[in-house]
């Protein structure tokens, strides 16, 4: 069999992976409409909104299962692209179904079910896309003209494609929310996913220069490899710290959205623009990290991000207390646009160095399964964080019309954010030297 040219392979991988990550990054477009649909259409309170947002992420918890199945079970001789297509069609069906719902005859249970189905499809597609990136970087005999950093460049390209999708999704979402009904925004994204599905099914895995299989590999064997990797103390401690560092922080994003939209009456387009600033910050973070921060020790970098998160939370408390407005003359609109979006994405900035750390620690042969496990642990942590946020908001007396206890909740959130720094020694601080020792 004649193999495709190396340049053609790289181009096809970039197109397929780039489209997959871009579409997933664009998910903020319909989710912005979901927030307003729930607030204005179904008239839910902040706690219910946050419960729904986090409960809809439950399918993310099973990512290791999707990873193991896609590793082991081939469909028509392929074990990545069919899962991307399946994930796309699940999402398309769910968003098109949500687009058909009316505000008067829709229950919270119904929309939650469709959002669960959408996130199930997104999880499956994300695992398959991550696996393609991992496999592309494991070519045993790289082409003569390829650069040694091609795998890291593909990883950076994937991160940038996701961020660019997020930038466009937030920008268009902010502009469309005042001009289109949420149902039309759901319909648009459903049609976009349908296009993604048809593009995926016309791509053959052999064209990516990946090895095709005709028989299924044992799922037990794949699970056994994953368990062996998890017995490594460095891997277990690192994943445990990262998951705990998210879970311990009560998320107050739903409460902040209600405060800005309902209490301050911030225009929806400005809320969208604030999220654009956040996505741009993520894009710049990916570029800066890959160019300048790769050599920084993981523990030092992650600890710095954790401190920055706490500082932004204290700043939010000052904002809610009207300190910036009354004593410094900073308009609410300016603060929301410039700082709120960045404050939200700081949580996700740790994931890039964490992913690279786990990749360095991971034994050969189970990169996809281990990364899926790590991401699922973080997904569980986010869900726990969301539920704790509901408990905290209830404890300080925050409701849809009373935000007097919100500053106290933000200060408690900031205090809990710095607590994980006391056991940051769980993060390996010299991964390179340890990997060399293993090679020797």
Topology:
Layout: H1 6-25, H2 28-41, H3 46-55, H4 63-72, H5 81-99, H6 108-136, H7 150-176, H8 182-201, H9 219-230, H10 233-247, H11 253-263, H12 268-293, H13 298-320, H14 323-327, H15 332-349, H16 351-361, H17 367-395, H18 406-418, H19 431-439
Helix pairs in contact: 1-6, 1-7, 1-8, 2-7, 2-8, 3-11, 3-17, 4-6, 4-17, 5-6, 5-8, 7-12, 10-17, 12-15, 13-15, 13-18
Please compute the radius of gyration using only Cα atoms.
22 Å
Classify the fold: give the CATH topology of the largest domain: Growth Hormone, Chain: A
Mean pLDDT: 80
SSE order = HHHHHHHHHHHHHHHHHHH
What is the overall shape? globular
Number of domains: 2
Describe the protein.
The structure is a single chain. This protein has 440 residues and is an all-alpha fold. It folds into 2 domains: 7-138 and 150-205, Up-down Bundle (Growth Hormone, Chain: A); 219-427, MFS general substrate transporter like domains (Growth Hormone, Chain: A), CATH 1.20.1250.20. It is built from 19 helices and no strands. The two termini are 37 Å apart.
List keywords for this structure.
Growth Hormone, Chain: A, Folate-biopterin transporter 7, disordered N terminus, 2 domains, 0% strand, mainly alpha, 440 residues, transmembrane helix
């Amino acid at each position: 069999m004649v193999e495709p040219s190396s340049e053609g392979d790289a181009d096809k991988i970039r197109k397929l992976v780039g489209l997959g990550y871009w579409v997933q990054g664009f998910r903020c477009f319909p989710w912005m409409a979901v927030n307003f649909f729930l607030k204005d259409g179904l008239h839910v309170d902040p706690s219910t909104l946050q419960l729904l947002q986090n409960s809809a992420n439950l399918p993310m918890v099973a990512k290791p299962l999707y990873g193991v199945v896609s590793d082991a079970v081939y469909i028509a001789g392929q074990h990545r692209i069919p899962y991307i297509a399946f994930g796309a069609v699940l999402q398309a069906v769910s968003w098109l179904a949500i687009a058909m719902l009316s505000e008067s005859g829709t229950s919270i249970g119904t929309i939650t079910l469709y959002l669960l189905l959408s996130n199930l499809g997104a999880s499956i597609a994300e695992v398959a896309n991550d696996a393609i990136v991992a496999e592309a970087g494991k070519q045993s005999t790289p082409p003569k003209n390829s650069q040694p950093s091609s795998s890291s460049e593909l990883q950076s390209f994937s991160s940038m494609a996701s961020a660019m999708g997020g930038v466009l999704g937030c920008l268009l979402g902010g502009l469309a929310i005042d001009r289109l009904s949420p149902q039309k925004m759901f319909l648009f994204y459903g049609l976009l996913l349908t296009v993604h599905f048809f593009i995926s099914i016309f791509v053959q895995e052999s064209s990516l220069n990946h090895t095709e299989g005709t028989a299924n590999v044992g799922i037990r064997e794949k699970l056994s490899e994953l368990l062996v990797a998890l017995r490594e103390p460095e891997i277990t401690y690192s994943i445990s710290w990262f998951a705990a560092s998210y879970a311990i922080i009560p998320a107050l994003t739903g409460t902040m959205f209600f405060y800005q939209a309902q209490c301050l009456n911030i225009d929806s387009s400005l809320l969208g623009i604030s999220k654009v600033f956040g996505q741009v910050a993520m894009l710049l973070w990916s570029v800066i990290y890959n160019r300048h921060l790769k050599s920084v020790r993981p523990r030092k970098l992650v600890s710095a991000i954790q401190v920055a998160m706490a500082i932004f939370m204290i700043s939010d408390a000052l904002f809610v207390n009207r300190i910036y407005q009354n004593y410094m003359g900073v308009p609410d609109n300016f603060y929301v646009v410039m700082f709120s979006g960045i404050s939200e994405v700081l949580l996700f900035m740790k994931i890039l160095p964490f992913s690279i750390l786990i990749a360095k620690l991971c034994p050969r042969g189970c990169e996809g399964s281990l990364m899926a496990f790590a991401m699922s642990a973080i997904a569980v942590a986010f869900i726990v964080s969301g539920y704790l946020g509901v408990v905290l908001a209830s404890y300080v007396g925050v409701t849809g019309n009373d935000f007097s206890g919100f500053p106290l909740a933000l200060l408690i959130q900031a205090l809990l954010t710095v607590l994980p720094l006391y056991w940051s020694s769980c993060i390996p601080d010299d991964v390179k030297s340890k990997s060399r020792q293993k090679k020797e």
